[in-house]
Design a protein that fits this description.
This protein has 4 domains: about 1-90, no CATH class; about 95-125; about 135-145 and about 165-380, 3-Layer(aba) Sandwich (Rossmann fold); about 390-560, Ribosomal Protein S5, domain 2. It is of the alpha/beta class and about 575 residues long. It contains 17 helices and 23 strands. It has helices spanning about 5-15, 15-20, 85-90, 135-140, 155-160, 165, 175-185, 205-215, 235-245, 260-265, 295-310, 335, 435-450, 475-490, 515-525, 535-540, 555-560, and strands at about 55, 60, 95-100, 105, 120-125, 190-195, 225-230, 250-255, 275-280, 315-320, 340-345, 350-360, 370-375, 375-380, 400-410, 410-425, 430-435, 460-465, 495-500, 500, 510, 530, 550. The N and C termini lie far apart (about 85 Å). It is elongated, with a radius of gyration of 30 Å. The strands form 5 sheets. A 9-stranded mixed beta sheet has the order 8-7-9-10-6-11-12-13-14. The chain has a 7-stranded mixed beta sheet with strand order 17-18-16-15-19-22-23. The structure holds thymidine-5'-diphosphate and magnesium ion.
């Protein structure tokens, strides 16, 4: 089609209401029954000719839940196959374009999303003959209340009789405590939790262990049924893993299926306490066009499971695969639908796994769970604050150039080791690893100018142990101390930790959450903690047993106190 024709067509469809063209009945597009593929036909009233019956989790939404008829294409070739208008003429129903990034829906194709400006993310949908209330229908048989029975309730009536302590499903033991911490104090009944993470990071292991904990029913005092559904592995494979994890919970049920309707139907006789689905990208709903893992399937399946969770009060835990860029695969709107989004992180070479909440409707997103992948599954780390300290820490009394900094991740404090090496006689180069180069340059310049350290002729190497990246200015003082220690060849006793930001005048500035940082250092048995003088105020008269907190105004004072014999 000529470009001119395309433009004319577009103008025509944008302003067609102005033309008021009457199409003769004999020429009108034949309508297919939109319930042709309904997964729950008996519950649906006969479709009216004029009103499309589309239901989403938010209620009736004729324009919001189109079914995908053409697979997503984000390769930028959309412009070439843009003529959706032609399809309308052929009677394939209204075509709309939905952004895979933010879920914005548009009546026509644009090169980029007009809501979030993402390029090449507009995916074509057609509200064809299969617009069905699939998500509601799939969980329909569980619905205890009809919409008409619901009415607004007084807050005091809602809260009356609910024991806040018993409200959440608690997870027992040290492993359970770490997971509970990230969830905000336990699993909330009726919540939908999405767990994302790289392949092989341990998502299936994590959820199988959670399933076992709840199935053992320590919080209830008796076992409770939990169903673990996998669309990726057979029950034998899951059983094998459970065996390796030494899980023997009587009430843990395994099921291998990818059909959401079938899963929900099979659950009913068990009335489980928790449902686990591994993974959302492998399950599908029959009424929705598109293969499992596609945008509309993922969205509709999540909606169906949300309905199920809200209506039955059974919490559902979903596993979500992540894309190359680290986001959960599928439409971004998925993260808006669910109540909690957890990410499991871990380095390939390290056995530590971090569990973070990216979204939590029932708690803080500041919490961090620290776990370790061992031979027998995931275990809580006994002292996470120490996990980034090198093993030779006890010998560091004899090594110059090591200093301990305290960094925060969420609400948790971690001690990390900074290493510096000043080599005289070689070319005056600088190599930094794990520290921002400009920050390191600034600290070196301040040490030269404000503390009188003659390091300009030296090659300086800086490194943060365990591959951690120092992003906080709270580590400045430890970097400066490590450089001094190496240059002066004066080992810093391994019982000293450093907290503070270094200013251009060589002055020490306080940092956020100083009490938490100093408290963590004290708990780990350190003898002395060097902090900025101004931080002493916020610490008040707090006493840290067995540890001296030394406030210093500037770098010179630190050098005089720590490297006293020089
Ligand atoms: P898995 O839970 O299958 O990861 P995901 O579901 O995120 O893809 O975990 C896979 C990795 O975990 C695998 O590489 C082996 C390791 N692993 C252990 O080290 N110990 C164990 O006890 C288990 C069950 C797994
Ligand atoms: Mg898995």
């Amino acid at each position: 089609m000529q470009v001119l024709d395309m433009r004319t067509l577009r103008i025509f469809y944008t302003h067609k209401h102005l033309f008021n063209l009457a199409v003769p009945k004999s020429l009108s597009i034949p309508r297919f029954s939109r319930y042709l593929h309904s997964t729950f036909p008996l519950r649906c009233a006969e479709p009216s000719e004029t009103t499309p019956h589309v239901w989403s989790i938010y209620g009736r939404a004729p324009d919001r839940l189109p079914s995908q008829t053409v697979s997503s294409s984000s390769d930028g070739n959309e412009g070439a196959k843009r003529p959706n208008d032609r399809n309308r003429k052929k009677g394939k129903g209204k075509v709309s374009w939905v952004c895979a990034e933010c879920g914005n829906s548009d009546g026509q194709w644009w090169g980029s999303c007009r809501a979030c400006n993402a390029v090449g993310t507009m995916t074509r949908f057609s509200e064809g003959n299969s617009l069905v209330s699939v998500s509601e229908a799939a969980s329909g048989s569980w619905l205890p209340q009809q919409a008409g029975e619901l009415r607004p309730l007084r807050l005091t009536d809602v809260n009356r009789g609910i024991n806040r302590l018993d409200w959440r499903i608690s997870l027992y033991g040290p492993f359970g405590a770490e997971v509970s911490r990230v969830l905000g104090g336990g699993l909330v009944p009726g919540s939908l939790v999405l767990v994302g993470g790289d392949p092989g990071v341990g998502k299936s292991t994590l959820l199988l262990q959670i399933a076992a904990l709840i199935a053992e029913g320590n919080d209830l005092g008796r076992p409770a049924p939990v169903v673990y559904v996998s669309g990726e592995e057979s029950v034998e494979q899951i059983g094998n893993r459970a065996d390796r994890l030494r899980i023997g919970a009587e009430e843990l049920f395994l099921y291998s299926s990818t059909d959401v309707e079938d899963i929900l139907a099979k659950l009913q006789p068990l009335s489980p306490r928790v449902l686990i689905v591994d993974s959302i990208q492998t399950v599908y709903l029959k009424g929705v066009i598109g293969s499992a893992g596609g945008i509309s399937q993922v969205k509709e399946c999540t909606s169906a499971l949300l309905h199920f969770a809200k209506k039955t009060n059974i919490p559902v835990l979903l596993i979500g695969h992540v894309t190359k860029s680290g986001e959960i695969a599928g439409p971004r709107v998925l993260e808006h639908i669910v109540d909690v989004v957890l990410y499991m992180e871990g380095e390939k070479c390290s056995s530590h796994r971090l569990l973070r909440a990216a979204k939590n409707r029932f708690g803080s997103t500041d919490e961090l769970g620290v776990l370790e992948m061992s031979q027998s599954g995931l275990q809580a780390v006994s002292n996470p604050s120490e996990m980034f300290l090198s093993e030779q820490c006890t010998d560091s009394e004899y090594l110059a150039g090591l200093a301990v900094a305290v960094i925060m991740d969420g609400s948790r404090a971690f001690l990390i080791e900074i290493q510096a090496l000043c080599a005289s006689g070689s070319t005056a180069t600088r190599q930094v690893n794990g520290i921002q180069a400009s920050r390191a340059d600034m600290i070196i310049a301040v040490l030269m100018k404000q503390a009188g350290l003659k390091i300009q002729e030296n090659a300086i190497f800086l490194n943060v142990v365990s591959g951690v990246t120092l992003t906080e200015t709270a580590g400045d003082l430890a970097v400066a101390a490590a450089i001094c220690s190496s240059f002066l060849e004066f080992p810093i006793p391994n019982s000293i930790a450093f907290i503070g930001e270094v200013g251009l005048g060589g002055e020490l500035r306080t940092v956020p959450r100083i009490e938490k940082r100093v408290g963590t250092v004290a708990k780990l048995g350190y003898k002395q903690c060097i902090v900025p003088k101004s931080a002493e105020k916020s610490l008040g008269s707090q006493v840290f047993e067995g540890m001296e907190v030394l406030g210093c105004r500037n770098l010179k004072e630190v050098i005089n106190n720590v490297f006293r014999s020089h």
